[in-house]
Write a structure and sequence with these properties.
Blueprint: H1 6-24, E1 35-42, H2 48-55, E2 68-76, E3 83-91, E4 113-120, H3 127-155, H4 159-166, E5 189-194, H5 196-199, H6 204-220, E6 224-227, H7 233-248, E7 265-266, H8 273-276, H9 294-305, H10 312-316, H11 329-352
Helix pairs in contact: 6-9
Keywords: Cell projection, Cilium, Cilium biogenesis/degradation, Cytoplasm, Cytoskeleton, Developmental protein, Dynein, Microtubule, Motor protein
Protein name: Cytoplasmic dynein 2 light intermediate chain 1
GO molecular function: dynein heavy chain binding
């Protein structure tokens, strides 16, 4: 049997959806099933699965995510109407498996794709590195797929192809705050600060640094930002509204909270650089940082206050078999025995030579 590539599978799925839409025509417009894709990634053990389960109203215990996992959610728009579908991908392992972002990002999914980046507020010394590495990996793959779509448009020009291509390009409204100064993420992005119940006990100055920095990052990428905790029904309710906005196109509400002494709730387009202000540099001389641009300046100031942890452990855990969260005692023992045998054979061969 010939091997079918993942790209081909995505293209077949896209063709099937397009075929159904075409057959339904304008008469079925209100009953047409909507399909969206949401990709969750973020801090290792940052609560991604727990948050996702709560947003889906699933009362089940969360388990460590094995590399990349898929599930889906459904929601009916009304009585006796087809249910909209949200394809949900979750990346495990923090930054160690960032190469896997290419799996859910394809020409077929990108038109209805959005990202949720979950950052563990209780570990500020790993926050910037996690955010930067994951967003860079995702953005590189998104740009790669968009580039392929543009090449396909040039080789197969036509109204339908042009319409499909335009729908992948994210263009901010002309009245979007600081529009000319931003670097919008290629698809809608929601940044969630998790474990707020622990973060709220931090020193007020440290909370202010984290809050202002994440406000800058979110606004720079034209993203929404919310702080949450699975221990707070109120915060999870607001988080679910943001999630449902991406997954099912529902209204995310108009609540805005930018007070660093409270959980941040800032929908995309509700903030501005003038409101955020300058980086909190109480003990840092900005001129000594030699920043290349505003984002680099915020990064260097943040790193002075919260030195980022060494990523050597993350590189070591590139192989999930070495990650303790995936341990299986019997299998691990057999693997260790096999490795010892291989090492012994290698030594024996060396001695024989």
């Amino acid at each position: 049997m010939p091997k079918i590539s993942s790209d081909t599978l995505w293209e077949l799925a896209a063709a099937e959806v397009h075929s159904r839409e075409t057959e339904g025509g304008e008469e079925d417009g209100g009953d047409m099933v909507s399909e969206r894709t949401v990709f969750l990634m973020g801090s290792k053990a940052g609560g991604k699965t727990s948050i996702l389960l709560r947003c889906l109203d699933r009362d089940e215990p969360s388990k460590p995510t094995l590399a990349m996992e898929y599930t889906f959610g459904r929601r009916a728009r009304g009585h006796n109407t087809p249910k909209d579908i949200a394809h949900l991908w979750e990346l495990g392992g923090g930054t160690s498996l960032s190469d896997l972002v290419q799996i859910p990002i394809s020409p077929a999914s990108i038109k209805s794709l959005s990202f949720i980046l979950i950052l563990d507020l209780s570990k500020p010394n790993a926050l910037w590195e996690t955010m930067e590495k994951l967003l860079q990996a995702a953005q590189a793959q998104l740009e790669k797929v968009l580039s392929k779509a543009q090449q396909a448009q040039r080789t197969k020009p036509g109204a339908k192809h042009q319409m499909a291509l335009q729908s992948t390009a994210r263009v901010l409204p002309k009245d979007y705050p600081d529009r000319e100064l931003l670097s919008p993420f290629p698809v809608p992005l929601l940044i969630i600060g998790s474990k707020y119940d622990i973060f709220q006990e931090f020193d007020s100055d440290k909370k202010k640094v984290v809050s202002k920095t994440l406000r800058f990052v979110a606004h720079y990428y034209a993203a929404s930002l919310i702080f949450t905790s699975i221990k707070s029904e109120s915060l999870m309710s607001k988080t679910k509204s943001f999630f449902s906005h991406l997954a099912f196109g529902l209204d995310r509400g108009k609540t805005v909270s930018s007070d660093s002494t409270k959980p941040l709730i800032i929908p995309a387009g509700s903030d501005s650089f003038s409101q955020i202000g300058s980086p909190p540099t109480t003990d840092v001389d900005i001129t000594s940082l030699h920043a290349k641009n505003p984002k680099d300046l915020w990064k260097k100031v943040y790193d002075r206050i919260f030195p980022q942890e060494n990523t050597g452990e993350q590189r070591e855990l590139k192989d999930p078999a070495k990650d303790p969260q995936y341990s299986e005692p019997q299998i691990d023992a057999m693997r260790a025995q096999k490795d010892q045998l291989a090492a012994w054979r290698s030594i024996s061969q060396t001695d024989a030579q």
